[in-house]
């Protein structure tokens, strides 16, 4: 046996060692736990922005992580885990929405307003901020679907145009034009509300 074959042979023994397998499995579990703790809130907001039901959004997030668990061996190949996970949950909720076809256009946005951050504020400021968030979200709900989708991913999840294009499966220029229309429509809706008050 040559020196190269001896090294290769000892490498194979290490790879088949139960301690190595247990260490690898533990590392994979830690990586998945890290993904869950880091991205579950983001994925919930993305799912909720489509399904408008807290339990359905939670189910979609859980299903997304189950899919990650099933394909954990490819996790190291993913360049941007955040965008990858958002795309998974986005596809899950859109698939469910297509199957159910029961989403009313005037959903209650109070649950999404509840999960928006408001730390470090007084009680009055928090109440005012929550009211403002609810109002902005109500205006977002009035947008056409395509414009609402890109605005939610851009404003609430802070994805770039390239990332949004990847999630939605459209071109970057389509994202930019939809975002432009969404912002113009939002400006009109918010200005109209101010003038009514």
List keywords for this structure.
197 residues, mainly alpha, Rna Polymerase Sigma Factor, Chain: A, 9 helices, 78% helix
SSE layout and pairing:
Blueprint: H1 3-15, H2 18-51, H3 54-70, H4 81-100, H5 110-115, H6 123-141, H7 145-156, H8 161-168, H9 172-196
Helix pairs in contact: 2-3, 2-4, 2-7, 3-4, 4-8, 7-9, 8-9
Describe the structure.
This protein has a domain at 1-103: Rna Polymerase Sigma Factor, Chain: A, CATH 1.10.1740. Helices cover 78% and strands 0% of the residues. The chain is globular and about 70 Å long. Residues 1-14 and 103-109 have low confidence and may be disordered. The chain contains 9 helices and no strands. The chain has 197 residues and is mainly alpha-helical.
Question: Which range best describes the helical content: under 10%, 10-25%, 25-40%, 40-55%, 55-70% or over 70%?
Answer: over 70%
Using only C-alpha atoms, the radius of gyration works out to: 22 Å
The helix/strand series, from N terminus to C terminus, equals: HHHHHHHHH
Structural class: mainly alpha
Kindly state the number of beta strands. 0
Q: If helices are DSSP runs of H or I spanning 4 or more residues, what is the number of helices?
A: 9
Mean pLDDT: 76
Tell me, briefly, the overall form.
Answer: globular
Sequence stretches where pLDDT stays below 50 over 5 or more residues: 1-14, 103-109
Fraction of residues in β-strands: under 5%
CATH T-level topology of the domain at 1-103: Rna Polymerase Sigma Factor, Chain: A
**Euclidean distance between termini CA atoms:** 87 Å
CATH architecture of the domain at 1-103: Orthogonal Bundle
Q: Which CATH first-tier class of the domain at 1-103 would you pick?
A: Mainly Alpha
Q: Please describe the biggest sheet, giving its number of strands, its sense, and whether it closes into a barrel.
A: none
């Amino acid at each position: 046996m040559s020196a190269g074959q001896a090294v290769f042979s000892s490498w194979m023994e290490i790879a088949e060692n139960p301690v190595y397998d247990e260490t690898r499995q533990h590392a994979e579990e830690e990586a998945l736990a890290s993904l869950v703790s880091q991205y579950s809130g983001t994925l919930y907001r993305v799912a909720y922005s489509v399904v408008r039901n807290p339990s359905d959004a939670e189910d979609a997030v859980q299903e997304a992580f189950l899919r990650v668990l099933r394909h954990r061996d490819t996790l190291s190949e993913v360049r941007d885990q955040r965008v990858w996970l958002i795309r998974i949950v986005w596809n899950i909720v859109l698939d469910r929405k297509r199957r159910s076809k029961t989403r009313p256009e005037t959903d209650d946005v109070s649950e999404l307003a509840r999960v928006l951050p408001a730390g470090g504020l007084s009680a009055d400021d928090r109440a005012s901020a929550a009211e403002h968030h609810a109002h902005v979200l109500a205006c977002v709900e009035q947008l056409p679907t395509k414009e609402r989708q890109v605005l939610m991913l851009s404003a609430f999840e802070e994805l770039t145009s390239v990332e949004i294009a990847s999630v939605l499966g459209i071109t970057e220029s389509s994202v930019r034009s939809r975002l432009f229309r969404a912002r113009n429509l939002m400006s009109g809706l918010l200005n109209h509300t101010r003038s009514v008050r």
